[in-house]
Design brief:
2 copies of one chain form a homodimer.
Chain A: H1 3-21, H2 30-40, H3 47-58, H4 63-84, E1 94-95, E2 98-99, H5 101-105, H6 107-125, H7 136-146, H8 152-162, H9 169-194, H10 199-226, H11 229-232, H12 238-241, H13 247-251, H14 253-270, H15 279-289
Antiparallel strand pairs in A: 1-2
Helix pairs in contact in A: 1-3, 1-4, 2-6, 3-4, 3-9, 3-15, 4-6, 4-9, 7-9, 8-9, 9-10, 10-14, 14-15
Chain lengths: 293, 293
């Protein structure tokens, strides 16, 4: 199966599982469940759950065993977008080409919707079967770390504090590591854990995830400068407009493109211990780099 | 030990454990960790963690085994207050006599602070030791249910939607059950689970918690009408000012007082299976009812 078919296939499987694992739209109170589903089914790329599933396969596991972990990661990712879009945060009206949660349901409901998605992400971890090395305790610790105050939330804090200030490249890298790379890395690790992966495999995936996450964020920054709003599905040039530090802003477009390629090479090198079994993860990394930036 | 000494003693132990279990104030990014600690150490009554510990004792367990569960519940409770106080929600400037989180740290940081407390509440569950009947899977499912979109968050949704509308007594009871009684009940159940309690004991505590939670909320409603801002530590008469439905508003003050006493009697009856071991829980219920309303 070529990589595009693989991604289409896994994305559909993730969507079906999310539909099954989220509270029904008609359960009371309906407004919150509608808002949760509106936000989750808003045309996301499902990058995090798909790499979670691919990591499970790379470690000899199955999609079935990894699916609850994959969905938990996507719910957590979606909550962070819903809160990040709020007027008191990034104040975004568009996300993935559609009005953001608070534009449709109001600010109060968007706060609660994010809270509910975060809570349900953790609830979903309780669905994962234990194996010899890992149980719910390990899944919970992993996701709470990636989503916690020193990683995902910490990155948003640094982002919030950095707006309008001049950041160094080092500070910007720290924000990207915390905001993006940490959750990508945990997506991989959670998938691997459902496959009973050795600690050495987890360490290799951690290296892969951190490099891939940084590459992904550098590319996003480049796209924000070079693409139109229509293509992005969100307001283009927004980072510049709010004087937010970006890679291209700090080091220029050419150097940013070189950095994205360098990081992807590092990511691919980290996959060497997986040999042939790392093929899908390699393809995904290549696919992300081939986005036209 | 009399009930006041018991409460003082347990509250101090909970405060010390919270200090140990929360991220250090000086860990980066400092702003979020300061905001988390500002909100948690704001003079709360620690009712939920204390009844968690008391439930563990009533089931033959120890404070030490129940402490992480008790702290997780308090972190989750605090997150819900921080988000509830936001301008787009209840818009409160004062909480427990001090400026609310967003008044001190700004709205964006208050959203993130709540998110971080919620995430850390779940992270803290991973610290609980397993016993014969219960492990992290059960603790996680319990807390996520009580804090989820059909209970705690669902109650806030109903609250948000109910403002300015005329609610029936039945609708108001549903909001109180979801917003207050569910988390009190889970506090008791989590404590009992750390003591390896039988399902019958959990069922009895569930009855106790639901009745106690409703009694507690009815009393809070009464106090909002009858007490001054100074005594309450929050803006008095606020519920009336925003036309929020309250027990006294629907059935009058006298009927509300009778209802509070009736619910407390039901709560006490639910404790009969615990015989002498239920003494502390009985005292706590009595203590809550003896608040001057």
């Amino acid at each position: 199966m070529d990589i595009r078919s693989y991604l289409t296939d896994k994305t559909a499987a993730v969507d079906a599982a999310l539909d099954r694992l989220l509270p029904p739209a008609k359960s009371a109170p309906r407004a919150i469940h509608e808002a949760m589903r509106y936000s989750v089914f808003a045309g996301g790329k499902r990058l995090r759950p798909v790499i979670c599933l691919a990591a499970a396969e790379a470690c000899g596991g199955t999609t079935a065993a990894a699916m609850a972990a994959a969905c938990a990661v996507e719910m957590l990712h979606t909550y962070s977008l819903v809160h990040d879009d709020l007027p008191c945060m990034d104040d975004d009206d568009l996300r993935r080409g559609r009005p953001t949660c608070h534009k449709v349901y109001g600010e109060g409901m968007a706060v609660l919707c994010g809270d509910a998605l975060l809570t349900h992400a953790f609830a979903t971890l309780a669905q994962i079967q234990s194996n010899k090395r890992y149980g719910v305790r390990e899944y919970l610790a992993e996701l709470a770390f990636a989503g916690g105050s020193t990683r995902l939330i910490g990155g948003q804090v640094m982002d919030l504090q950095g707006e309008g200030n001049t950041l160094t490249k080092r500070e910007l890298v720290r924000i990207h590591q915390a905001k993006t790379a940490a959750l990508l890395t945990s997506s991989l690790r959670l998938g691997a854990m459902t496959a009973n992966a050795t600690p050495a495999k987890l360490a290799a995936l951690t290296k892969f995830g951190l490099a891939l996450g940084l590459a992904f964020q550098v590319i996003d920054d480049i796209l924000d400068v070079t693409q139109t709003t229509e293509v992005l599905g969100k307001t283009a040039g927004k980072d510049q407009a709010v004087a937010k530090a970006t890679y291209p802003g700090l080091v220029g477009l050419d150097a940013s493109r070189r950095e994205a390629r360098r990081l992807t090479r590092n990511a691919l090198a980290a996959l060497e211990p997986f040999r042939a079994k790392g093929a899908r993860l390699r393809e995904i990394a290549g696919y992300l780099l081939m986005r036209e930036y």
